[in-house]
From TrEMBL:
Protein name: Octaprenyl diphosphate synthase
Catalytic function, reaction form: 5 isopentenyl diphosphate + (2E,6E)-farnesyl diphosphate = all-trans-octaprenyl diphosphate + 5 diphosphate
Organism: Limnohabitans planktonicus II-D5
Function: Supplies octaprenyl diphosphate, the precursor for the side chain of the isoprenoid quinones ubiquinone and menaquinone.
One GO MF term: all-trans-octaprenyl-diphosphate synthase activity
GO biological process, one term: isoprenoid biosynthetic process
Amino acid sequence: MAEVDRVIAHRLDSGVPLVGEVARYIISAGGKRLRPVLLLLSCGALGYQETQRHNLAAVVEFIHTATLLHDDVVDESTLRRGRPTANENFGNPASVLVGDFLYSRAFQMMVDAGSMRVMQTLADATNVIAEGEVLQLMNMHDASLDEEGYLRVIRSKTAKLFEASSRLGAILAGSPAPIEAACAEYGQALGTAFQVIDDVLDYDGNAAEMGKNLGDDLREGKATLPLILAMQRGTPKQSQTVREAIETGSVDKLHDIVSIVRETGALDATRDAAAAEAQRAIEAAMQLPDNTYRQAMVLLASQLLNRRN
């Protein structure tokens, strides 16, 4: 990871000072670097130790960072990882344009791999992520969204880059199709579990730990799984309270909604859904060769359920 950070710092260089300033601001915020970690772990599990793994790990972090820059503009977010968002600090135009720079720099870097499979995987992933963003935008303030629709969004918007990151390790290692498929499934399942837990924390965390404002999803009119299950399980009055909050984007009754989510068992049911995805990830990882890297992949999936931020 230290080598990946070195590559990131080197490739952020630009002749336009504001580009580097904005990009460094968000990348230096101390994110989890989970996507690069997945790529490095899958490479290690499959015996690939060439330097291209560092380059592509930086690529997936650049793509992820670009989506964060654009996300925060679309969502009008003011806080990320415990400090003001880039759009709050530098304005929306700079955030959007630097996000575009990071996308284009990522594509410059992936060419270095000299592999059409690598380029196809990342190009497809980037396209699916963009579709997921639009799908989420269409679903804003839609209280009729069901669990299937919710999962479709997060598997496009969040889990797809996890999936691509894990798959890339198998592609670099020249692994057979079944192993590549296992890596991809591991990433998709882990990414889905990660997002589901993230949605739990919007109603079961605190702003200091999470580095974002509690209730942000509700404020943006997002029907996340805790809310979907609360409407299914609650009394007509409870369901109506949640429905109105999603449709209006009001957080005036946030305290009541947190209570409804907990009282109906929706929070526990959401954690159970995340646990099922984490177990799916573990089962996929068990198809890889038995070594310390695979053990780390299994541990990562099991520890994800204890995430607090």
